Amino acid sequence: MAARMWMVRAGRNGRWADAFLNEGLVGLGWHGVGDPLRFSSKAAMLAEMKRAYPEMSHGQAASGVGQLWRFERELTVGDDVVTYESGTRQYHLGKIRSDARYAPGEIEELTLRRSVDWMTSISRDLLSNDTKNRLGSTITLFKVPQSAADELRRTARGESSEDAQDRAKIHFEEEEDPFESLTEEAALRIADRIGQLAWDDMQRLVAALLRALGYRTEIAPTGPDRGRDIFASPDGFGFEQPRIAVEVKHRLGEKIDAPALRSFLGGRHKDDRGLYVSTGGFTKEAYYEADRATIPLKLMTLDDLSRAIIEAYDRFDNDGRALLPLTRVYWPA
C-alpha cells in the first residue's frame, strides 16, 4: 500500500519554499501559541490561539488549531509530502524523516517542523487538469487525494475525480474559505493558460498589462533588442518619467540567475526603471542581485504576472483580451 501524501504549503505564494528545500523541512507557524506540543487537547490549544490572535474569527482559529494538531498527530515518519513553489511552478516531493519538533527563534512562521528528504521536483505543466484542481486548495495542510498522489508518483518516475467525500471532509475540518479558494484556483489556471503562450505573444501580453497600467509601450523588433524587449513610458517617447525597460524570458522550468540580471542592468540609464519577467522564476542569487540594483527593479514570475493581470484586466485593451480571454465572476461581498 502506497504511503499517504500530504500537501504542506510554504506560505502564501510559496514564500518559504527555499527554506523548505535548503533546510530539508516542512513547517507551520502561529508562533503566538508557543509550543503546540504541550497541549493535550484541541480545546486547550484553541483557547490559547484565540488569546494570542484575538483578531481571528472562531472559524479561522479552529482551522489553525486543526492544522497544527494534524501536523503533530497525523503526519508520520515515512509519509510522502509535497509542497508547491509558485515562482517556478514546481511541485517538490519528499519523505518525512522526523517527528514534529518545536523550533522557536529560527523562522518565526515555521516554529513547528518536521525533517524531510526532498527527492524530486515536477512541473505543474506535466500534470492533468484533474490533478491540478485537486492540488489547488488554499489550505496550508491537507491530505492529497489518492488519484492526485498516484499521478505525482507516476510523473516522478517518468511514466506518462477527486473523491467528493474526501473533499467534503477537508472543507468540514479546515473550514476553507470558498472565495479565497476560488481566487487562488483562478490565479493558478490563468497562469497555466499564460504559460502556453508563444514567446512573442508573451511579450504582447506583458505590454498589454503595462498599457492597462497607464503606459504607452514599444515592443522591440525581432533581433538584437539592446537589452530590453519592451520599452514603456507615460508619453511613449521616454521624455516623461518613469522610463521602464522590460525583459521577458519565457522558459518554463528555467530560472534566471544573477549574471543574466547583471547583463540586463548593464545597459540601463540611471533614471530607468526595470521589469524582468521570467516564467521559469529566479534563483535566490538573482533576488539578491535585484535588491542591490542601482535602479528600481521588479522581478515578476508567472504567478506574479497572473495576479497582476487579474488586478488590471478591467482596463485591458482588445489586443490584451484577445491574447488572454477571461470571464468575470461576481461573489457576494
Q: Care to give the gist of this entry?
A:
This protein has 333 residues and is an alpha+beta fold.
Which short descriptors sum up this protein?
Trna Endonuclease, Chain: A, domain 1; 7-stranded mixed β-sheet; 333 residues; alpha+beta; 38% helix; 12 helices; 2 domains
What is the CATH architecture annotation of the largest domain? Roll
- In the CATH scheme, the class of the largest domain would be Alpha Beta
The span between the termini is: 45 Å
Low-confidence stretches: 161-175
Structural class: alpha+beta
Q: What is the number of helical segments per DSSP (H or I, 4+ residues)?
A: 12
Strand content range? 15-25%
CA radius of gyration? 22 Å
Helix content: 25-40%
CATH topology of the largest domain: ph1033 like fold
Number of domains: 2
Main sheet: strands, sense, barrel: 7 strands, mixed
Order of helices and strands: EHEHHEEEEHEHHHHEEEHEHEHH
Mean pLDDT: 86
Report the principal-axis shape.
globular
Total number of beta strands: 12
